[in-house]
Specification:
By secondary structure, the protein is α/β, with parallel strands linked by helices. It is built from seven helices and twelve strands. Helix content is about 30%, strand content about 25%. A six-stranded mixed beta sheet has the order 1-4-5-6-3-2.
């Protein structure tokens, strides 16, 4: 937890009051004391610093949030893995700068996934916030949507929702990573990255994505788990500022 982020309702004037896991982290890891300066921010707002003014069951800090957070650089079309894997992956997506996540029902996605408790906002949002606090430089909570019909989403919604020419589909059988990675940072718009299920995209799914402007991008011939592939791809493609 490298930056403490607050919900807008937790801030009154220039004072933020918080408890729970964040307060415990300040006490036990940061060894917080009155007068100490913390890195802080408001979710979906500015970031800056906060000075501890009161230590108790709750902690109160005087905040100064004047810095613009780093914006997201990539959106993700993801055929979701098993819920326990996705639960582990979501914080990392926020840390790595993903802006929008659309979970799509590719052919090899397990059908019972769509009833998972994880898809409730009150369950997945804290995971995304944890990832932002780890990453330190952003405060914008990624949005998460589900689309069970892959073909309908790609055909009817994708172009209007993501009007970018910068599109890559992860596929082990395609272009090598070098050229595609360079193209992903060439200023063609915010990157839209499509990552398939652990069994891979079908040939038909890849063809449909290619028909909508996606270029193949490969990490090599090894078949990776979804969480491994996703983190590796985002780390490889992330713009170096």
């Amino acid at each position: 937890m490298n930056r403490i982020l607050f919900e807008p309702a937790e801030i009154a004037g220039d004072l933020a009051t918080f408890g729970g896991a964040r307060a415990e982290h300040v006490r036990t890891v940061l060894h917080g004391e009155v007068g100490q300066i913390l890195k802080t921010g408001e979710l979906d707002g500015a970031i800056g610093t906060g000075e501890i003014v009161e230590m108790g069951e709750s902690i109160r800090v005087r905040v100064r949030h004047t810095d613009v957070p780093l914006p997201p650089w990539v959106d993700l079309v993801l055929a979701p893995p098993r819920p326990r894997v996705l639960k582990r992956l979501l914080p990392q997506l926020a840390t790595l700068g993903v802006g929008r996540i659309v979970l799509v029902g590719a052919k090899k996605v397990e059908k019972d996934f769509w009833g998972a408790t994880l898809l409730k906002e009150e369950i997945y949002r804290p995971l995304l916030v944890d990832g932002l606090m780890q990453g330190c430089v952003s405060s914008r909570v990624p949005t998460l949507e589900t689309r069970r019909n892959f073909r309908k989403f790609v055909t009817d919604e994708l172009d209007a929702r993501f009007p970018t020419a910068n599109r890559l589909v992860a596929h082990p059988y395609g272009a090598d990573g070098g050229g595609a990675a360079n193209g992903a940072q060439s200023g063609a718009g915010r990157l839209l990255l499509a990552i398939g299920p652990e069994g891979g995209w079908t040939d038909e799914e890849v063809a449909l994505l290619e028909a909508h402007g996606f270029a193949r991008h490969s990490l090599g011939p090894r078949i990776l788990r979804t969480d491994t592939a996703t983190v590796a791809l985002l780390a490889q493609l992330m713009p170096r500022l």
